[in-house]
Amino acid sequence: MKTTIKTLLLAATAAGLSPTASAHVVLDQPAALAGSYYKATLRIGHGCDGRATTLVKVLVPEGLRGARPMPKAGWTLQATKAPLARPYDSHGKRITEDVREITWEGGPLPDAWADEFSFVAQLPARPGPLPIQVLQQCGNEARLEWFDVAVPGAKPPRSPAPVLEVLPGDGSGHAH
Question: 35 pLDDT exceeds 60?
């Protein structure tokens, strides 16, 4: 049976896995299949207390493999690697370090405007929620840390991290 991402998103929403409504940094596609390659597109909806956004930094979760950022006109891009707690094999090569931070700096993105910042990576094989923490900075004066993870039954966090719901996949490494 062929499963589409749209069907999976509808199922995730019905199960109460939709992104936090109060979030100001959200994922364009909040659900994807385990083991698949995924394009994470983070939407920035506003600046910091009226100030323009000048830096967006993504803290890449350990479960994401081979993160590759997408360049953005007018922004300087940096991908920082770090040693992995759990090395993995990819195309016959042992990977012991991987991209753990992606930073876009420049812009600026005015407070009244919205934009998107994207990267691609392979999702973990295990289903479950995957928070992606984002730092949004507006000049030297202000910053927003979208780091908090929602806890079921608790008050929604003030600065929620966007959460990707990794859904059960077929193990092929490709979405169907």
Answer: yes
CATH code of residue 106 = 2.60.40.2230
Q: If we measure between CA atoms, which residue out of 136, 36, 125 comes closest to residue 86? A: 125
d(CA 119, CA 42): 9
Report if residue 44 sits inside a domain.
yes
| Torsion 100-115-131-125 (CA) sign | negative
pLDDT range class, residue 152, cuts 50, 70, 90: confident
Q: Check: CB of residue 43 under 8 Å from CB of residue 23.
A: no
Classify residue 22: in a domain, yes or no: no
Q: Contact, 26 vs 43, CB < 8 A?
A: yes
- Residue 29, pLDDT above cutoff 80: yes
Q: Which residue has the tokens 């979030």?
A: 23
- Per-residue pLDDT band at 172 (split at 50, 70, 90): low
Contact 149, 161 (CB under 8 A): yes
Pairing of strands 128-131, 75-90: unpaired
* pLDDT of res. 33: 97
